[in-house]
TrEMBL record:
Flagellin C-terminal domain sequence ranges: 67-147
Family to which this protein belongs: Belongs to the bacterial flagellin family.
UniProt entry keywords in alphabetical sequence: Bacterial flagellum
Protein name: Flagellin C-terminal domain-containing protein
Intracellular or extracellular location(s): Bacterial flagellum
Predominant cellular place of this UniProt entry's protein: other
Gene Ontology MF annotations: structural molecule activity
InterPro entries hit by this protein: Flagellin, Flagellin_C
Entries under SUPFAM superfamilies matching the protein: Phase 1 flagellin
GO CC term (a single one): bacterial-type flagellum
Keyword Lipoprotein: no
Coiled-coil features, chain-numbered ranges: none
Length: 149
């Protein structure tokens, strides 16, 4: 008879402001709480022990092999879940890196501004605007009657 001495807690890692991902599975859920073909629950280690005892005694393991298969399905399911969580963490890491790169580019635009160049461009644009406004005012007063005089 095997006894689980670990804790039943699961830690979660915060990978973004609004997303957490479990970083592990409990040993109890992986190895100890295995459904049997008879509808009960048994741990993987007792199942393997009972199969070994049956084989040593020269008898057929019977439904114990089905229970072992269910235990392996549980382990594989846990492994798949861990892989999915790892993929989610890697995806979030890429999103975080993209966000950081975008923020650094925006910060660079603000901090690395060449003020002399910006003031020169602003002054040129302001002069062009004033010239366009003066031309508009002169053309606005003209009409066909002004040309006939």
């Amino acid at each position: 008879m095997y006894v689980f001495n670990g804790d039943m807690g699961r830690r979660h890692i915060q990978v973004s402001a609004d997303r957490t991902i479990a970083d592990s599975d409990t040993g109890f859920s992986v190895f100890m709480d295995i459904q049997t073909s008879g509808g009960g629950a048994r741990n993987l280690f007792d199942t393997v022990d009972q199969i070994a005892d049956a084989l040593e005694a020269g008898s057929a393991p019977g439904t114990l092999l089905d229970d072992l298969d269910l235990a392996m399905q549980n382990v594989l399911g846990t492994r798949a879940s861990a892989g999915a969580r790892l993929n989610a963490v890697e995806e979030q890491e890429l999103l975080n890196e993209s966000f950081i790169l975008s923020m650094e580019a925006n910060r660079s635009k603000v901090q690395d501004l060449d003020y002399a160049e910006a003031l020169t461009r602003f002054s040129q644009q302001e002069t062009a605007l004033q010239a366009a406004q003066q031309v508009f005012l002169r053309l606005e007063g003209l009409s066909l009657f002004n040309l006939m005089r």
